[in-house]
Write a structure and sequence with these properties.
Length: 255
């Protein structure tokens, strides 16, 4: 496990104060960089940066989270981010702790960790980037892959009889007792960016106030493994992903 303290770095003009000047290590058109910017902006505008600890899962976003966020962050083993975040929060109850994970990291190998963190009601925030594929390892089938979607391991498309149904993580976690807020957003349009920013702020407020777990799933486009250009990937979120993963608040039990 790697621990990196907040560096003293110069922030580029126009870049969020919550981000360093490190290059963003994503494919052209990837939605992860936009989601990362929203997270950093939200933390900065809420005045949480000096008490924030991020726990970064294993995926395409790992290098981006570890190199670009300008506050303390830890790199966890695959799927274990909620368990690590639980330890950080219990050792430092004054800290604002959040995890950044992908759909493969959280919904596959890490499903047990997030379910139990939600059941316990840990006062952390969890952000899951959902692009429907294992982008970090070659574009294989993920728990969130849509029916009919082609991946490196489903060349003719996902068949529910053979490969199972798509897992709707936000709906599942919203029903667990320790979750105080659960929502789903997207980063493919200006309107969706605004809504996702609002959802992140609410989830962060819940966790920072010690009220329980706040969860936000973000639909993130992946032109590389969707096999489309960046502009077309924005439309695919509206045409396909939003039908299977409706946007909006799924639970709001704020005190």
């Amino acid at each position: 496990m790697t621990v990196i303290a907040r560096p003293e770095t110069r922030v580029l003009p126009g870049r969020s104060a919550g981000l360093t000047e490190s290059p963003v290590p994503y494919c052209p058109g990837c939605g992860h960089s936009v989601a990362q910017r929203l997270i950093a902006d939200t933390i900065e505008t809420m005045g949480l940066r000096d008490r924030t600890v991020a726990v970064i899962g294993a995926g395409c976003y790992t290098n981006g989270g570890m190199s670009c966020f300008d506050f303390p962050r830890l790199s966890s083993l695959h799927g274990r981010a909620p368990a690590v975040a639980t330890g950080v929060k219990r050792a430092r109850p004054d800290a604002f702790v959040f995890t950044l994970q992908g759909d493969g990291d959280l919904a596959a190998i890490g499903l047990s960790e997030i379910v139990h963190a939600c059941t316990r009601g840990e006062s952390i925030a969890v952000v899951m980037l959902n692009n429907g594929t294992y982008g970090n390892t070659g574009g294989q089938l993920a728990p969130t892959t849509l029916p009919g979607q082609r991946t490196a391991t489903t060349l003719t498309g996902r068949e529910t009889v053979a490969h199972g149904h798509t897992l709707r993580v936000a709906e599942m976690l919203a029903g667990l007792p320790g979750v105080r807020y659960a929502a789903r957003g997207a980063v493919n349009s200006a309107q969706n960016l605004w809504r996702t920013r609002r959802a992140l702020r609410t989830a962060f407020e819940v966790a920072a106030a010690g009220q329980g777990l706040g969860f936000v799933e973000i639909l993130s486009q992946c032109p590389t493994f969707w096999g489309v250009d960046p502009i077309a990937s924005l439309a695919q979120v509206d045409a396909h992903a939003k039908a299977a993963f409706p946007l909006g608040d799924l639970r709001d039990d704020r005190v």
